Structures are given as structure tokens and as C-alpha cells.
Amino acid sequence: MVEKSIKNAQRYGIPYGIAKENIQVNDTLENYPNLKHFIHPPYHITNPPYLYLGYIAKNSKRNLRYFSGQNEGYQDLYQIALINDLKHGLQNIIYIIPANFLFGFSVSNKIRKDFFPFYDIRKAIIFEKRIFEFTGTNVCICFFEKKAYPSDKPIIFYALKVNSKTIKKRYNLSADNFYRAGGEFDEYVSFFKSPKPLRINFYLTIDEVERNKGKIPIKLLDVSNFSSGYFRFNTYMVNQNFHDKIKSNPLFVRTLDTGTWEGRAGIYDIQETFGVDGIVVTKEKYRTHPIQIFTTPNLSKDDLLLLRNYFNLMLEYFRDITDSEFLTTFKYSSFDYIRKYLGLSQTKKLLETFSIHLMSLKEKTLLKILIDQKNIVGIKDILLSINRKDENQTELFQR
Fold this sequence. Notes:
35% of the residues lie in helices and 23% in strands. The chain is an alpha+beta fold. The strands form four sheets. It has a six-stranded mixed β-sheet with strand order 1-2-4-3-5-6. A four-stranded antiparallel β-sheet has the order 7-13-10-11.
């Protein structure tokens, strides 16, 4: 690779002797260069290694040494590279790194929180298409510049976003949201969360089915049994209470875009989609298979339909205004949109903004009309009035 790099440098007009002297093998993650040897301040341009901590723990444990000591808590090798440049005070750096640096949640919250008080992004190019032959990771090219002094002010920059088309977007990264891009969704679910939200639980496990044996048959899709492009299903004999619990919670969340417009992430009806009563997990729980949703208290069919329609409308609304940036990219697709993954925490937070169990019949009727009209402003106004009414009632009760 050194020889290839030297030849590549020569094609750019760099003399062989200079390239031979300066292109070397060195593990800069572990042994950072001594900057005293540089005549001029270095401008670091790099495509650092991407290797997620969870993968390392399973497959390449020798690399865990990079994440010890002061580096504990970081989640990827590229983050170690970034923090090394920060520690050594480099003025200008250009990184080709996974796009989850900008858009990820727990995987990149810490590095952004530690890095951005000291660096601005001058500009960026974000790719939602395959760039590298050996990885399905979306990448971005970020031009970083060291701040004159540490600051937690918002970082504002323009980026070119490249997928089936190229658009220019303005980004505003705030410390309140761990400097995460695409934060409109998070702001909404935080501001509109109900004072008394529905209690949401996910997954129906085989252990729970086994604990509730009885004489009533129920047909369950087994998401742990998938072959030839289909999930298998089985009939189980359960007791009355458990049967009623499953039947009264007929919704599931599809967390992953299937690759067609009809199969986008969202909430769907189990019977309509699969022709069964419920969805059971007989082995490991995975976040990417269909997951049954359980609400407390139980809701009527009409209320469940309203809840589902609200959720899917708002999900598509935020996909539209953020270009789906609040979701996690799931590899690539030849279709005219990029396949995305919807997190269970995001599902729960959005459901917690819709307190259907606290609404009057008049409020439900009005919301149904607004949802059918896709009137987002009207929906927000109604939800805000419901939340304020409930807050006032709670305050009076406490007094």
C-alpha cells in the first residue's frame, strides 16, 4: 500500500524522493506523530479506519486496546482518530467518516459532545450511495476547523447531500441535542410528550406464551422462523386473559424499510398484513423483524386506528422535512429513496405524544379530520391544548 500510495502521489506531480520520504506505515491511533518534527502546521486529511466497538469485541479483541484509559466510552476507531487530533490541537482536518457521526444516536453522542466545543464544520459532503467497495456504510466528508476558543454555540454549516440527486442543505447542530443533525423529530417528541402518555411495550415472547397455556387457540407469526422469503406461523393454546391481551393489541411496528413505497417503516395491522393474531419471538429478539406493540390501557379499535394513522402521518412528515435524516440509514437501495431504520425508542417517543386515552370524543373526531387532511399545524394545536389541559388538571389535583 505504501508503494501504491507513492505511485499515486507521483501521478499528482509529487517527486518520488519526497513521496518516498513522507509516505510511511505508522499506527497513529496508538503512536501519534510528534508535531515538533513538522516545519509547518499540519493539515490532516484522512480516511481513518471504521471499526465499531461491538464488532471488535466479537471478532477482533486485540483492537480493544485503543478504547482504554482516556478513550473509554468511544464507539469506533474513527472516533479515536478524531479525539487524537483534538488532543494535539490540529487547526485544520478533513475526515472521510461514517455519516452516523452526524446522524447517529448513542454510537456518536459522546464523540460529538467532546469534539464540537473545540471544532466547527466549515462544510461537508454527505453521501447516501455506495462509495467504498468493501463497506455498506454511508460516509461524509467533513471539513473541520479549530475554534478560536471553546464554545457550545450551535454549529451552522452547509452541506451537499448526494444520493439519486444532489441537494444543498443547511444544518444547525445544537449542544442540547448532542450536536446531532436532523433534530426536528427529537424536538417535536420532547416538546409534545404527554404529561400522562400511553405505556408502550414491545415484543411477545414464547416464554410468555408458555406461561399462559389454556384451551383457546391463537395463531401467531414466528419471526424467528424465516425461510424461503416467508415467516412461519403456529397455533398455540392459551388462556382467556392472554388471548384477550393479544387480540386487543393488533398493531406492530415495521422498523425497517422493505425497499418499496408500500413497505416503509411504520405501524401496521397484524391481521391485515400477515393474517394472524399476533407476532411471537421464539429465539433472540431482533430490532429489524416485525414487532408487536402493547399499550396500557387497552384501546378500542377506533382509537387504535386513529393512533396508527397519526403515527404514520407524522413519521412521513418528518421524513419529508428532514430528508429522513432522523432515521438510521440501512445500507443501500436501487429504488428512489434510501432504506431507513426506525428505532424502537423513536417509535415509543412518537406514540407518547398522542394521548388517545385522555381525549374526549369531540377531540378524537376533530383529530381524525385533521389527520385525514394531513393538517400538521392543526394536529399540533390540538395536541398542545390537550397536554396543557391535562397539566392543569394534574396541578389542581396536587394542590
